[in-house]
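Duplicate of earlier report; APC family permease input re-posted below.
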Amino acid sequence: MSSRPPLSSAPSAPSPDLRRSLGVVDGVAIAASSTAATTSIAIGMGTIATIVGLQAPALLLLAFLPVLGIATAYARLNRSEPNCGNGYVWVGRSLGPWPGFLTGWVTLVGSVIFCAYTSAIMGSVVLAFANKAGLHSVAGIALDPTSTGVTTGVGLVILTALTALAVTGVRSATRFQFALLVFEYTVLLAFCGWALITGDHAVSLSWFNPFEISSGTAFAQGMVLAVFFFWGWDAAFSVNEETKTPGDAARGGLIALFAMLGLFLFASVAFQREMSLAELVRNGPQALPYLGEKLAAEPWATLPLVALMFSAVASVQATLIPTARGLFAMSRDRTMGPVWTRVHPRWGTPAAGTVVVMAVAAVIAVLAVAIPKLSDMLLAAVNAIGLIVALYYGLTALACAVRFRSARHEGPREALLAIGVPAVSGLILLGLGGYLGYSYLTMSDHFELSPDNGWFMFSLPAAIVLAGLGMAAVAKYVRHSPYFTTGHGTDAESLTLPMDRTAV
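Output:
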C-alpha cells in the first residue's frame, strides 16, 4: 500500500464538512443530467452529420467501448479512494502532482465552458418560444434564437436561478433534475419512436460501418465528438463524499452510461430514418425542434423544444454541482484558494464556490459573443471540450492501470480488468486527441474565429492546458501546496461527514 501523507501536512484549519444524503437514484440523476442526452442529441446529431455523414451510429458504438473501459477504471479507483476530487486526486497519487493538477484543471474548465455555452442554448429555446408566441422583438432588439448575443443574455438569467437552487441543497437539486429527466426522456422516446415507424429512409448497415467515413481526420473528430456525447456520467463520482456509501456513486454512473448508449443509438437511427443527410446538416443544432415540427402539428410540435429546455436546465445544474466539488477538493489541498472550501452552515454545500463558478461561466459566455452565429459557437465549444475530455479521461484511466499494476500477479482476468482495459481505453482517447490536435495544426495557414479554422480549434484546448500548467506553478511555488510534495489529495475518510437526518 502506498503511504499516506501525515495529517500535519494538511491545512491547519478545521476540515470542512459535506453532508451524506445521496443514494443510487441521486447518482443516476446527476450523471444522466450532466450527460444531457437530450441536449447532446438535439445539438449533436446535426453537428456530427456535418463531419461523418450518416455514420453517427457506428461512431457512438465505437466511442462507447473506451468510455466503458474508463468508467470501470473510475469505479475501481473510487472503491480504493472515494474523493470528490476523483481524477485530480487519483492521477496525482499514481502519475504525479503535475498531471494530477492538470486533470483537475481541464475537468473544471471544460465544465465551466459547458455551463457557458449551454446557457446560450437555454436562451435560444426561450427565444424560440417567444417567436412561436408572436414576439419577435423587444425595445428594438430582435429576439433571434440563432444570435449568440441575445441568447446568451437570456440564458444568463436562467443560469443565476439554477445556481441559487444548487446552493440551497444538492438533494433538492437532484430531485428537481430527476423530474426534468422523466419528462424529457418521455418526449424524446415518443418522437424518436414515431420517426422510426414513419421515416422514409430505410435503415442501412452502412450507418454502422466506420470504414465509410471519408478521412482519418473526420474519423478522429467524429470520435471525439461521440465521446463528448457520453461526457458527464462521471459527475456521479463528484458526490461520492455525499453518498451514503461510496459504491452508490459508481453504480449511479454506470447505470446512466448504459442508459445513454441506448438513447443515443435509438435517436441516431430515428433521426436518419426521418431526415436526409442534407436536412441534418442544414438544421445543425436545431435538428430536434425540426424533427418535432416535421412529425406533429402544434401544440405537440413544441414538446421537443420543451424537452430540450428541460435538458439544458438539468445539465447546467448537474454541471455546477461537480464543478464546485472538484474545486472544493483542490482547495482543501491548497492547490486553489480558500474560497472553494467555504461550506454553507445551513445547506451543507460549497455555496461560495458554486456562485463563483457561475460568475466565471457568465464571463466566458459573454466573451463567446465574439462568434456571432450560435451554431458556430457551439461547434467550437464542443470540439474544445471533446479534446480536453479525451485528455482527462485518458490520464485517469492510465492512473488506474498504474495504481493497480500489482494485479498482474492475481491472474489473467484481474490483470485484464485492472490494467489492460483501463490502459488501452486511456491510450485510445489520448491517441485520438493527439491525432486530432495535429490535424488542426496542419489544416490551416492563418488564424480566424471560425470552427472551420484549424488554428482556432487547436488554440482553445491548448490555451486551457497552458493556463492549467501556469496555475499548477502558482499552487506549487506560491501557495506551497503539500499536494506537490506528495502527489496525494486530502484523505476524504479523515473528514467528518455528518449524515443528513432529514433524508428519507
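Residues 1-15, 491-504 have pLDDT under 50 and may be disordered.

Merging into the original ticket.
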